[in-house]
Amino acid sequence: MTTSTRERIVAESLRLFADRGYTATSVAEIEAAAGLSPGAGGLYRHFRSKEEVLASAIREHIERTHRQIDDVLDQAAVYEDRPLETRLRMTCQTGLAKMREEQDLIRVLFRDLDQFPNLVAEMREGIVNPLYDGIATWLAAQPEFEGADEDWPAIAAILGGAVVNYWLANESMYEPPTRIDEKRFVESWARLGLGLVRLERTPAPTTASP
Known about the structure:
The protein has helices at about 5-20, 25-35, 50-75, 85-100, 105-110, 115-140, 150-175, 180-195. The longest helix has 25 residues, at about 50-75. By secondary structure, it is mainly α.
């Protein structure tokens, strides 16, 4: 499939922003990386500014994330014959793969997006929250959890947050927390998820009337 000039500009700009930072990356450098004549204004035939390139990169990732979530939820029934622990491991591995896929965007988020609060909001509402919502929806749809009176959004925040933290620690500190390799992390994550099958709620303590 042929990549358009616009697509090359978006892809190369995000890579450069991740490597060098948004401010340190010039329009001419983006043009050169995208195969255009640097400094000739080729970028401005597709975008009004460097910020618009960044916004376009974020919105393309948002659209892709929504498609991926829909695909995973649509295909959930295909794997229902596999043991729950296997399905949980697959879900955890999918989450880690998604973090790796978005690594350039995540680097830009932590390095540069404080100057663009509107883009932070778009990422939060377009990528982060839908991913957690997707985990909650997936958990609630598993046959083993049918009828469970659980706060699935809160559980998704815990399980999803563990995946995010594991990947971020590995990425920023060059090794995972306490050197737990990915296989052990995935297996333990799945075991925690399995515990939901046997989870019994403890009644909240009542306060005696004086």
